[in-house]
Every structure is written in structure tokens, then in C-alpha cells.
Fold:
Amino acid sequence: GKKKKKRRDMVPATPHPTSSASFVVRFCEMDTPLRSLDCNPKFLRAAQKASLTKAWDVVQMSAPELRKRIRLSEPETNQFLHSVHQQLFATTLPARTALDLLAPDHTRRLSLGCPRLDAQVGGGILTRTLTELAGESSSGKTQLCLQLSLSVQLPVAQGGLGGKCVVLSTEDAFPTARLQQILGHFTEHGSLTAEATDHIYIQHVDSVEDLWEIVSRKLPVYLKYHNVKLVIIDSIAALFRIEYGGRNLTTRSCALTAFARQLKALADEHNAAVVCVNQVSDYFGTTDDAAKQRSGSVGSARQVIPALGLVWTNCITTRFLLGRHGPDLRTLDVTLAPHLPLSRCFFTVTSRGVFGVDADSRTRRPAAAASAAAAAPAAPAAVAVAVEAEAAAAFAAAAADKDALTALSARVAVALAVASADAAVAAAAAASEVAFATVALCSTRSKLSSVSSNISRSLLL
Structure:
């Protein structure tokens, strides 16, 4: 007779490392054997009879499905499922009293490397928390991270944490040459030596799975045995945007939550600071002033919001939104912080590092155009040029000093009155100047340019 073919059970093909199923198993450690969990032996025996040996076999099923497989009562099935979930996803943050939280050394602050910036953010980056630096390209995110990697090595008395830094780079190659430039500023003042770069550990990460491997296995070792006090991920959005895009949002949300929980637990255990760099997306909807402040669109015609959505926003503790206003001027907005009010400060990026800019330095400018226009009568076209120059200067001074803006507007009004012999034209120009000053105080570049153009057009007519 014919030989019976031996039955072969189907073995699922190994999923691609970046597939959602593989990654869920990876980041939640759901391949843990059920027998290693502290569960009721009766439940474990029932699961073994049903060929359920891994934690993933249990958590991927709903309660009715699990009850049908292990043939237990509904209360017992719910208790078994709750026990597995509790041991897999239980937080590792220890419980503390309110008195513990008031201890002077419970939460420290890491200096940004500039007194003006530190004053704006309440003394620096908080330890035991998750801080996000979000912003468009060339807004200064990586520059600030490089400065932080050096500041963390300073003694506590100088605003540092007296520790080392781990940088997880997910985008371009690490800018070593730029780091050496900024280090030159620290060595000039005797704060650090040339060997400071040996205390910065750099790891390039190519995938979300590799990032989780480092965060869950390697990073705890560095924090415990190498005195690491600052962890920088530059950037968290790059990997998740590439691997997920607009697909598998549920899996992406679970992964982001798991990352945040692990980073917070490590930061809390070792009293370290964690800084995650995030990208931004353009926002085309209509928002009120409060929403604009939260998204960082105040003071710019372009509205942007941080990437990764609301799930990631709920994971972080503090958010600083960086913006670019021209080739030199940049802004830092405090848009999310339980210990700080919503605020804005200005800074510049130089060869020596990142430095805050005060009101006086931002209002310094060549005043030749305004002085010439106010000193003598001029042709309408010349006055138009002067108005344009004053418009740019007034925009720069608007957010800093109302008195300076008023003086600039008065100069333009004088130039307009001198250039025009017609009282009606002068009155119309003065009315336009009032509108110009009002818009400039709102720091809206597009509207300011429009008003300034209207003034110039009226003069030419």
C-alpha cells in the first residue's frame, strides 16, 4: 500500500525585521516564556495544554479567544490575562513620597552653556525627565545638543552634572569637527580639556529595532557603569517616519510609548537627563492664538507642529521649539513645560557655540538710511527706500522694545512729512505708519512687508 505521508505542521516564515509583528515582539520582550512569569500554576498548565508557551501567544489574543483556547472560566481567564499584562508592562519607576521629591538633589538642572538661555528655561534641562528639542532644519537643534554634550561634563557648581554623554545618531554622520569648534570655547575658559571628546559615546542607529536594542540593553550598562548623565537621541522622528510613515499608527504609538517609558525609567533611576530631537511638519489649518503658541507658529508666517503626533507629546515632559528667523537670528520657544510659563527667547549660532541674544544687541543696526531721510527733503523714491530700511529695523526691534519701535516709527513719519508738501498725503502716510507699527508689534513678517510696500507705493504715486 501507499505510505502515508508524514504530517508537517506549517511553520510561519520569519517576518522581516522591520515588520510590525516582529517589532512588537521585540520591543515588549513578549518572547518571554510563560513559565518564567509569576502566574497561578493552574493557568500555566492550561496554557501549556493549549500549546501557548510564550507571553506573545497570550497577549495577542482577546479575553474571549483566550478563554476558548485554555478552557477556563471567564474570571480565571481575565485574571490570567491581567497577570501576564501586569508583569510585562508594569512600570519600573519606584514610588516616592512628596518629601522625597522636595529633596535638593532629587532633580538637577543641566546648563545649556549660556546664562541667557538658562535664565529662559529655568536654569537648564531637568534631570529625571524627557526633554524634546523640536524645530525645522537649520534651527540649531544639533548645535544645542553638541553644546549640551560638553556642558554635562562640567562640575555641578558650574551648571553641569559631572558625567558623560551618550549620543544616538539616526540621521547624518556625527559632526565631530563642529564639536571640536565648540570645545575650543570651553577650553579657552579652562572649563574643560581637549580630552572632553573621550567622554562622549556615539552610536549610529539605522532602524527602530536597533534603537530599542540599544535603549533596552546597552544604555542601562553605560548609565550604571560609565557615569553617563546625558542621553541624546538625534533624532527620534527620523527612524519612525521612515519605517512607519502613515501606516501601522497603532503599532507606532505602542513603540513610542515603550521607548518613552524605558527612557524615563533609566533617567529616573540614574538621575540623568534625556534629550530627544524631533522634526516638525507644516500645519495648514486655522488655529487660535493659544494653539499657535503651542505649535510654535507665533511670530512666523509659517505654521509648524512637532512630528509624531499627540501620543509622543503625551510622553515627553518638556518641549522647546526652535525656529529660524533669517540667516543669524533663531528663537527658542517654551511650548510645553510643567515648571515654566510659555515664553520665547532669541539666540545665535556662532563658531564658538550657541549664545542667547539680549534686546539691546538685537536692536543695534546701521541708522544711516533713517538719519538721512529725516535730515533733509528727498525724492519720494529715496524716502521709499528709507521706509523699507526702517521697516526691517522696526521688525527686528518690535518684540524687544516698544519704545525703540516708537522712535523708529517717529523717524519714518518725519521723513514722510518732510518729503511731502501735501498735508493730505502726509496725513495718509501717518495713518499708514500707525498700522505699520501695530503690525510690527505683532511680529508678523508677511503683514509687515505688505504694509511697508503700501507706504512705499503711496510715496511713489
Observations:
- The first strand starts at residue 109 and ends at 110.
- Residues 249-270 form the longest helix (22 residues).
